[in-house]
Specification:
Largest sheet: none
Shape: elongated
Oligomer: single chain
Number of helices: 3
Length: 90
């Protein structure tokens, strides 16, 4: 039962990433984004995956961790691109 609630938590977090990615892509600016925050979230997902692997409870929930990790990484790459665009427009 706990895995179901963990899955719903990850789905709720995961639903926000496509919106953030689209906003980052279309804004073409890093203003309002925090690299530290994105890295903190990314490492949180990575640590969640590691915890699942260490505990041996590798279930379907790990797929949600991996998907959220991937979307966070995409948003981080867009942040880096947008920061370069911000610097080049000065």
């Amino acid at each position: 039962m706990a895995e179901i609630f963990e899955m719903f938590m990850l789905i709720c977090f995961g639903l926000s990433w496509p919106v953030s990615i689209i906003k980052s892509y279309t804004a073409r600016s890093a203003k309002g984004k925090s690299r530290f925050f994105l890295l903190l979230i990314l490492f949180g997902y990575i640590f969640g995956i590691i915890a699942k692997l260490i505990s041996g409870s590798i279930t379907y929930v790990i797929a949600f961790y991996a998907l959220n990790c991937l979307m966070t990484l995409i948003d981080l790459m867009l942040y880096i691109r947008n920061r370069r665009l911000d610097k080049s427009s000065i």
